[in-house]
Amino acid sequence: MSFFTSTLVLLTLATILLNTSASQALPPDFAGPIPNVTTAVSRDAVLECFVENLGMYKVAWIKMDTQTLLTIDMNVITRDPRIKVSNNNMRQWFLHIKKVKEEDRGYYMCQINTEPMISITGYLDVMVPPIIIEDGTSSDTIADEMSKVSLRCQATGYPTPKIFWRREDQKDISVVSYTGRRFSVSKVEGEYLNISQITREEMGAYLCIATNGIPPSVSKRIMLEVNFRPKIRVPNQLVGANVGSQVILKCNVQAWPRPLTSWVRHKGVIIINSNMYHLIEENDSYNTYMSLKIKHLSEADFGSYKCVARNSFGEKEGFIRLYEEILSTTKPYMLRSTFMAPIPFPEEPHIDDNDSTLTPRLRYGNPTSNSLMDDYKDLRAEWKQKREVNFSKVITRKLGEYIRCLAWCYTISPTNLYCTVAVFHRQCSLGTSLLLKSFL
User: Fold this and answer.
1) For residue 141, which of 133, 132, 152, 130 has the smallest C-alpha distance?
2) Long-range contacts of residues 185-191, Cβ cutoff 8 Å, at least 24 apart
3) 210 beta partners
4) Could you tell me the CA-to-CA distances from 266 to 293, 306, 320, 420 in Å, in that order?
5) What are phi and psi of 374, to 5 degrees?
6) Per residue in 341-362, pLDDT tens?
7) For the chain, which terminal residue's Cβ has fewer other Cβ atoms within 10 angstroms, N or C?
């Protein structure tokens, strides 16, 4: 070995010894604070501690609220299998917590066993997504129409979740303010949903939704049912059809609980499904759509029918009259059937009070004190007489048309009493009204 090589080795060893002596001379310390960590429950968390000049000293991790010793140096003291420790070149010390639980939230201490002991702390914040508390939340609710309903929803989580209500069908919710004013909103915030004087339109599914910014948000579906007695609407109370054709009678029912429905013919005969009759029923919430299809109509099928709906709150009936359409061949310009458009009777002429031929004109000049009044009375009497004459002519013409109307119906079907009555009421009502006026 040359002289220069030996000298270089000695200088290197001396430098190492000097550095080692200098490092041992400086006491251990922390390079900075422990960064706070925020994580969601069931995820992993890592706390980091920076140490300088550790030397022969040891680093320990402690949970402060329970004073639990977790690790010393590279050894795990706690029996919790989720806890691990690691370091990077003895300067960065890491505390690993797998699948964090809510009870892991709190302060953690990184400690060096010097004399006296030195330490720093960091905070682990564990976020918990919302959870609905079943015991404190309303279940499916049934209420009578026009009563008051109060639904409740409770939830827990960290941070404290916010609760709001929404309808599942996206319709607005009807609420009442403190001043008594009723208005509609798309959602209602708060633990309680109060509905005053609930109606059938507010029946349906309501969603209680809890959120705190930590996914996932949670919701509970609460079904609100509103009880009320049946109500029936008949789209067409008079239905005409020809023998041999097919016809459908319809009734629309609103009721809850869902009603028992039936179709009844005249003389109380209950209709059931058969080759001649086909019963159809469609349900949509509290709406029930009833249909009765009659195939191959015969003379015996004409008459009255009724649809019946009943539940525990009451019973309702709807009536339909099925009549035979009679096609006209002798007077096509008047009617195609008994119940088509009425005969176009002419309107009663309108007598204008401002007509120059009837309204008295005042003569200007120098009349005596009573001449103007006398002239006015004479002209007024003349105007009234002309009006009565014109009205008498209208009455005479209308009465003739009315008699012809009844005679025509009798000619078409002298044995069909229903035709005669229908024409009397629907086609000849104008003549009847004018006839009554003539006696007033």
Assistant:
1) 152
2) 188/164, 189/162, 189/163, 189/164, 189/165, 190/163, 190/164, 190/165, 191/152, 191/153, 191/154, 191/163
3) 163, 218
4) 16, 8, 10, 21
5) -65, -45
6) 343 434 444 444 444 444 443 3
7) C
- Encoded amino acid at 92, one letter: Q
Place of tokens 């004459």: 389
What's at 106, amino acid-wise? G
- Give the torsion sign (CA, 259, 263, 269, 275): negative
Which segment, 20-29, 408-417, 420-429, is predicted with the most confidence on average? 20-29
d(CA 361, CA 382): 13
CA distance 121 to 115: 18
pTM above 0.90, yes or no: no
For residue 217, the Cα-to-chain-centroid distance in whole angstroms is 21
What is d(CA 51, CA 74) in angstroms, rounded to the nearest whole number?
15
Residue type, position 20, single letter: T
Do residues 232 and 313 make contact, with C-beta atoms less than 8 angstroms apart?
no
SS (H, E, C) the chain: CCHHHHHHHHHHHHHHHHHHHHHHHCCCEECCCCCCEEEECCCCEEEEEEEECCCCCCEEEEECCCCEEEEECCEECCCCCCEEEEEECCCEEEEEECCCCHHHCEEEEEEECCCCCEEEEEEEEEEEEEEECHHHCCCCEEEECCCCEEEECCEEEECCCEEEEEECCCCCEEEECCCCCEEEECCEECCEEEECCCCHHHCEEEEEEEECCCCCCEEEEEEEEEEEEEEEECCCCEEEECCCCCEEEEEEEEEECCCEEEEEEHHHCEECCCCCEEEEEEEECCEEEEEEEECCCCHHHCEEEEEEEEECCEEEEEEEEEEECCCCCCCCCCCCCCCCCCCCCCCCCCCCCCCCCCCCCCCCCCCCCCHHHHHHHHHHHHHHHHHHHHHHHHHHHHHHHHHHHHHHHHHHCCCCHHHHHHHHHHCCHHHHHHHHHHHC
How close are the terminal C-alpha atoms of the chain, in Å? Answer: 151
**Cα angle, residue 278 at apex, residues 267 and 246 outer, rounded to 5°:** 85
Burial class (CB in 10 A: 0-12, 13-18, 19+), 112: buried
- pLDDT 10s digits, 121-172: 999 999 999 999 999 999 999 999 999 999 999 999 999 999 999 999 999 9
Q: Indicate the residue type of 53.
A: N
CA 150 to CA 194: how far, in whole Å? 4
The rounded distance, in Å, linking the Cα atoms of 49 and 31 is 8
